[in-house]
Amino acid sequence: MLPNTGKLAGCTVFITGASRGIGKAIALKAAKDGANIVIAAKTAQAHPKLAGTIYSAAEEIKAAGGKALPCVVDVRDEQQISSAVEKAVEKFGAYTIAKYGMSMCVLGMAEEFKGEIAVNALWPKTAIYTAAMDMLGGSGIESQCRKVDIIADAAYCIFKKPKSFTGNFIIDENILKEEGIKNFDVYAITPGHPLLPDFFLDEQPVIVTKEPATHGALPELKEEEAQPPPKPRSGAVEGTFRIVKDSLSDDIVKATQAIYQFELSGEDGGTWFLDLKSKGGNVGYGEPSDRADVVMSMSTDDFVKMFSGKLKPTIAFMSGRLKIKGNMALAIKLEKLMNQMNARL
User: Fold this and answer.
1) For 118, which DSSP code?
2) What is the pTM of this model?
3) Which of 38, 50, 65, 143 is surrounded by the most beta carbons within 10 Å?
4) For the segment 246-301, what is each residue's pLDDT rounded down to a tens digit?
5) Catalytic hit among 55, 95, 187, 260
6) How far apart are the first and last CA of the chain?
7) How many whole angstroms separate alpha carbon 176 and alpha carbon 161?
8) How far, in Å, CA of 343 to CA of 170, rounded?
9) Which residues contact 101 (CB under 8 A, 6 or more apart)?
10) Of residues 109, 128, 126, the one with CA closest to residue 118
11) How distant, in Å, are the alpha carbons of 103, 164, 330 from that of 317?
């Protein structure tokens, strides 16, 4: 673990989502230096399934040695954000450091505020065990995750940097290695257990694509004896599966070990499967011969957009356009596979 140096004493840190999880871990790390923490989060009343409110977090921050200002903030509400900033300035004079989720404007803001405010993005190398991961990942997912402490330590490293350190996209493990941290087992929920790569980082084996023997001809789909012959299909979905099949390899199958079933609505829809358990892999129309590990339901248009990189599965899932049943960890693996196939689709 990275030791505290006291460098943040008297600094004011504005943290969204600080009532629990990663946000609270960063807050507690800074509080140990004696920092002022603005807790900007939605939870003011106890949730039946999720521990922590802005007020309980404030008590923990005070106990760790910091000062706290709990503010009810929904980051989608500009007025609530402005109000929280005004309260922070009124109570602490100003705020010097901010942590916001999903930093999509890092480069633009870094350039705009160069010399005045440093803007950086921080991302985990592996899955981090939080309440959200517990809900989405299912039983046993925690053994494949690291603790929130690794993000808190990485954020602390960034906080210590000068304002000239800006416009960077940082992976937690990388910056901690630069600080001399060598033992990362201390951050693991289950030391020694294989870790799940983060949802948005490309950590899967590189795909070695196979060129079709003849251009324009559709490759014959492997049939399982237990399956009835597939119906003739044509269109964008069939074309997508054709390219997916050409991209499969034993290495991908070995790294994934999952069967995916797709329930597609709309033209060229129906039930399709992607078998990444059988030797060499297989795709086809109809149900897989073995039970699917993950079932994904969506429109045919969204399916094609996802595999071609025009629609992020995370966005589709959060907006309700994609429904997932089964093993969420294996669903995450499929997104990484999609990212590597985008160039061919």
Assistant:
1) -
2) 0.58
3) 38
4) 888 898 899 889 999 999 998 888 999 999 999 989 999 999 999 999 999 999 99
5) 95
6) 43
7) 13
8) 25
9) 16, 17, 23, 75
10) 109
11) 20, 37, 15
- Rounded to 5 degrees, φ, ψ at 313 are -55, -35
Question: Measured between alpha carbons, how far is residue 46 from residues 33, 51, 62, 212 in Å?
Answer: 28, 7, 19, 58
255: number of Cβ within 10 Å: 16
SS3 content of the chain, % helix, strand, coil (to 5): 35, 15, 45
The 10s digit of each residue's pLDDT in 148-188 is: 999 999 999 999 999 999 888 899 999 999 999 999 999 99
Q: Which residue has the tokens 């980082």?
A: 201
The C-alpha atoms of residue 216 and residue 149 are separated, in whole angstroms, by: 53
> What is the total residue count of the chain?
345
The Cα 249–Cα 292 span in angstroms is 19
**In Å, how far from its chain's centre is CA 74?**
20
> Read out DSSP for 232-269?
P--SHHHHHHHHHHHH--HHHHHHH-EEEEEEEESTT-
Residues in CB range of 268: below 8 A, 6 or more apart: 233, 234, 235, 236, 237, 238, 300
User: For this structure, is 95 an active site residue?
Assistant: yes
Residue pair 108/121 in contact by the 8 Å Cβ criterion = no
Helical packing angle, 149-159 and 21-31, nearest 10°: 50
> What is the Cα–Cα distance from 121 to 317, expressed in whole angstroms?
23
